[in-house]
Amino acid sequence: MAGDHENDKRGSERWGVQIPWMNRREQPEERESADPEPPEPESAPAGPAPEPDAAEREPTGLDAGEDANPEHGEAGEIPASRIGRSAKLGAAIGGQATRYAGTAAANLARSDQKAQERTETRHVEAALKMVSVLGEMKGAAMKIGQMASFIDIDFLPPEYREIYQEQLAKLRAQAPAMPWEKVREVLVSEYDGKDPEVVFASIEHEAFAAASIGQVHRAVLHDGSTAAVKVQYPGVAEALESDLANAGIIVRVAKALAPGLDAKAVAGELRERVLEELDYEYEAQNQRAFARAYDGHPFIYVPKVNSRLSRRRVLVSEHVEGHPFEQVKELPQDERDIFGEIVFRFCFGSIYHLQHFNADTHPGNYLLMDDGRVAFLDFGMTKRLNPEQILMEQRAIDAASRDDPGALRVALDELGFLHDASAIDAERLMEHVKFVGGWYLEDRELEITPKRVMKMIEVTSDPRSDFYELVRKEAVPADELMGRRMETGLLAVLAQLRATANWHRIMREWVYADEPATVLGEAEWRYFGQRGTSQTPGLPAADPAG
User: Fold this and answer.
1) Burial class, 156, CB count within 10 angstroms (exposed 0-12 / middle 13-18 / buried 19+)
2) Which of 22, 41, 150, 421 lies at a C-alpha separation of 20 to 30 Å from 412?
């Protein structure tokens, strides 16, 4: 593997791009492999734990998040039924709510300091419980926790938000692992009865990374190379079927808020994408496509797939080492800005360079490699677009950038975002679009902050928003569902970095085929130009100054 990386290390010399950390990070303090090793479990503050008052003692049964339903299975198994999974999640949340009420009542008789200490302890316990339950459930339930970990949780008191994010972030890196015995059963089944010790020269029994539907084991192949072996959790297909049934409830609620929503089409799109994610052979096909497209790229790296050893429930790919997102967040701001631009160029740029994008943007999928490139992992949920759809996207961005409400309404109507365009106030629609996508529509240096992310979520989903009545007249076409997921997730990642750039100028490279706006852009365009990779033609150039 190291040899392959050396052969690919063409960044600064070949493409003329200098990334600060290439020279600055010669001896990193800690290095992670594909996803970080699990940190030591955290507990409540040190010292003897205070005895709980009667009002806040641990509830029993389901109130404590216990699983009393026999259909949930034995220890280590994923609860599969719709009722069982809903009950497990609801019990965890309900149990913690009960305990908070008890803590609040008991705090009335405590000193301010002791009350604060006890409340903080309760928040730590609640965060640990949420991580435990979401991790055990796997599937879509765990994805909710992963998503929540990188969107700032503004509804919590400011002094406690970090506690929840710190604990939920562990789902990005290392969720509770399935025991080796169950993993081995999957491997033996997928390799037609062959023992994993025969298929691989060696394979570690301890998973070094865990995701929503599988976990990853480090292995050595018979040629001596190191591989990452992702094994699907046994029972996760049934669990996801239950989650999809629950997703139907979510879609119906969304339809009540936005009557223009085509609930049947959206549910179909969700089901198709999720079922694709269950098929690792399909994921391998996606990853191979991205790996070929970015082979030798100056700052983007996609691990190569071992097609011979990959199966429907086993994906074997090149093992990549690098620094996880939590370490990237500790870099100086100028380096975080560069990392943010790289992620932005990968997420949006692949739409225009490949007509294909990865919809799963949670930051556990990104590793900063020692040579300065960023490795992108996990291609289970991707979306292909046809040139006509991309052209309509370009027209919508163009209309919003030119501040042309009429043209924007027409463009969004063509994309299927408007149930009845004639009933929409074009000026009001323009205001709404600028709240949502203004970060890449404004021609200026712009820092992405958590406040901006929460505002974007508010104006698209909160009934208290000034745009609520407009949102009820809008739709989310099925073909756009994954794109909106990608955009929201990307914005949340950039907010965690507090990344700053003129995002509009970068976007113009794809919408109008403008000249590169940054040094990274220059290197990327040289790369694609020399490869002769197809580029979606830009619209007629518009004056960015208006």
Assistant:
1) middle
2) 150
Contact status, residue 33 vs residue 325, Cβ threshold 8 Å: no
408 vs 428: CA distance, rounded Å: 11
Give the residue among 435, 424, 438 at the shortest CA–CA distance from 462.
435
Q: Are 162 and 125 in contact (CB under 8 A)?
A: no
Question: By C-alpha distance, which of 473, 391, 479, 394 is closest to 432?
Answer: 473
The pairing of beta strand 374-376 with beta strand 300-301: parallel
Residues whose CB is less than 8 angstroms from the CB of residue 330 and which lie 6 or more positions away in sequence, other chains included: none
User: Can you give the three-state secondary structure of 242-253, one letter per residue?
Assistant: HHHHHHHHHHHH
Q: Who contacts 372 (Cβ-Cβ below 8 Å, separation ≥6)?
A: 11, 12, 19, 21, 22, 299
pLDDT by position in tens, the chain (length 546)? 444 444 444 444 444 566 655 444 443 344 444 433 333 333 333 443 444 443 333 333 323 333 333 333 444 555 544 444 444 434 443 444 444 444 444 444 445 556 555 554 554 454 445 444 444 444 444 444 444 443 344 434 444 445 445 554 554 445 557 889 999 999 999 999 999 999 999 999 999 987 667 899 999 999 999 999 999 988 777 766 666 666 555 555 455 544 555 666 666 766 777 677 788 999 999 999 999 999 999 999 999 999 999 999 999 999 999 999 999 999 999 999 999 999 999 999 999 999 999 988 888 889 999 999 999 999 988 999 999 999 999 999 999 999 999 999 999 999 998 888 999 999 999 999 998 899 999 999 999 998 888 888 777 767 778 887 888 788 778 788 788 889 988 998 999 999 999 999 999 999 999 999 999 999 999 999 898 876 667 787 555 554
- Using CA of residue 397, residue 403, residue 407, residue 408, what is the dihedral sign? positive
